[in-house]
Write a structure and sequence with these properties.
The complex is a heterodimer of chains A (114) and B (231). By secondary structure, chain A is mostly helical. Chain A has helices spanning 9-36, 41-49, 51-79, 83-113. Chain B has 8 helices and 7 strands. Classes of the chains: A mainly alpha (114), B alpha+beta (231).
Chain lengths: 114, 231
C-alpha cells in the first residue's frame, strides 16, 4: 500500500488526539485562571516560565497546528479541485503553521530562559 | 394542489426550468408518485422512474421540497404547496426527474457487496448463529435508492472518489458478516483520504434514509474496526 493510501485513518486519529489535547489544555488553563482571579503581567509571565507549563503550552501549539492542518486539508480536498491551486494552498498552510509554531516556541523559550 | 416540477431535456432545452402543474382532485392518502402519474396523464412528456410503488425498489427517489425521499411513500397531504419536485441532486440529469446513477453504482460495486470466502465451498449452506445474523439488521435493508448519497455534500464534491453513505453502509454490512473472510482486504480498500474519510459526520444520510437506516453509524463502526487493526 502506498504512503498516500494510508493517510486516511492516521490523519483522522491525529485530528481526534489533537482535539482531546486542545480541550484538556484549555479546560486546565481556564480553571487555573478562574481560580487565581485577576493576575498581573508578572504573575502571568512567571506562570508560563515554569518548564512544565512551557512544555504543555508548546504541546498545545503543536496539537493546534496538527488539528488545523487536518481540518484545512479536508476543506481543500473537498472544495479545491485544480491541482496547482490545491498544492499552492496546502503549501501556504504548511508554511504558515511552521512559522506560527517557531514563533510560539521562541516566545515560550524566551519566557523560560529569562 | 399545485406542483412545480423540474423539466429538462438536454436534447432540446438550452437549460432546465420549473413547470407548474395543478391537480384539482387530491384524494385522501394520495402519494406523490400517484400525483406524478396524474401529472404525466396531463403531460406525457414528463419523465421519471418508478416501479414497485411501495417503497421497496427505490427507483422513484426524488428531491421533494428540498429533501430527498421516495415519491411512492410520501403523502402529498404532508407537503407544502407548491410542491417542488426535482431530480436527486449531485448527479447528471438524463431527462426531467431521471438522473444518471452510474457514479453511485460504481461506488457501490467498488466495496464488493458480496461475501468473499476463501474456504472451500461447504456441502450445504454456510450457517450463521442468530446472534451473528442480528448484527446485519439495519444494514441489509438498504434498497439502493440513493437518497442518502445524493444528500451528502461530501459525495456531491467527490462522487468519483468518495464511496458515499450507501456504499459504505454495504461495506460495513459485509465487514459485520461472520461468514465473510476478507476483512483485511476490505479495510485496506477503504483506506486513504477519500474513499471513506471524506465523511465529515454531516448525517444528512441518516436524516433522509426512507428505510430509517444509519450509514453514519456504519462508517463509525468501520473506523473503529480499522483502528483496532492498526493498534
Amino acid at each position: 500500500m502506498s504512503w498516500w493510501a494510508t493517510q486516511g485513518l492516521k490523519t483522522w486519529v491525529w485530528q481526534r488526539l489533537s482535539a482531546v489535547y486542545l480541550a484538556v489544555y484549555l479546560v486546565a488553563l481556564l480553571s487555573v485562571l478562574l481560580r487565581q482571579g485577576p493576575i498581573t503581567y508578572a504573575q502571568w509571565h512567571d506562570w508560563f516560565a515554569q518548564p512544565v507549563v512551557g512544555v504543555a503550552t508548546a504541546g498545545f501549539f503543536v496539537a493546534f497546528a496538527v488539528h488545523v492542518w487536518v481540518g484545512i486539508r479536508d476543506v481543500v480536498f473537498d472544495y479545491v479541485k485544480p491541482y496547482q491551486y490545491r498544492l499552492l494552498l496546502l503549501a501556504g498552510v504548511v508554511m504558515t503553521l511552521i512559522v506560527m509554531l517557531l514563533w510560539a516556541f521562541r516566545i515560550l523559550l524566551m519566557a523560560v530562559m529569562r | 394542489m399545485r406542483f412545480s416540477v423540474y423539466r429538462y431535456n438536454p436534447e432540446v432545452d438550452s437549460g432546465p426550468r420549473m413547470q407548474t402543474y395543478v391537480l384539482e382532485q387530491v384524494p385522501q392518502g394520495m402519494m406523490l408518485l400517484d400525483a406524478l402519474l396524474e401529472i404525466k396523464a396531463q403531460d406525457e412528456t414528463l419523465s421519471f422512474r418508478r416501479s414497485c410503488g411501495e417503497g421497496v425498489c427505490g427507483s422513484d427517489a426524488l428531491n421533494i421540497n428540498g429533501r430527498n425521499g421516495l415519491a411512492c411513500i410520501t403523502p402529498v397531504a404532508d407537503l407544502k404547496e407548491p410542491v417542488e419536485v426535482r431530480p436527486l441532486p449531485g448527479l447528471p440529469v438524463v431527462r426531467d426527474l431521471v438522473v444518471d446513477m452510474d457514479k453511485f453504482f460504481h461506488q457501490y460495486r467498488a466495496v464488493q457487496p458480496y461475501l468473499i470466502v476463501h474456504d472451500p465451498d461447504p456441502e450445504t449452506e454456510r450457517p450463521q448463529s442468530p446472534e451473528d445474523r442480528d448484527k446485519l439488521d439495519g444494514l441489509y435493508e438498504c434498497i439502493l435508492c440513493g437518497c442518502c448519497s445524493m444528500s451528502c455534500p461530501s459525495f456531491w464534491w467527490n462522487p468519483d472518489k468518495f464511496r458515499g453513505p450507501a456504499a459504505l453502509l454495504q461495506a460495513w454490512r459485509f465487514l459485520a458478516d461472520s461468514r465473510d473472510q476478507a476483512t483485511e482486504h476490505r479495510l485496506q480498500e477503504l483506506e486513504g483520504p477519500y474513499r471513506m474519510f471524506r465523511c465529515h459526520t454531516i448525517m444528512n444520510c441518516v436524516d433522509v434514509c426512507p428505510k430509517g437506516l444509519n450509514p453514519t453509524l456504519a462508517i463509525n463502526n468501520i473506523k473503529k474496526l480499522m483502528l483496532k487493526h492498526l493498534v
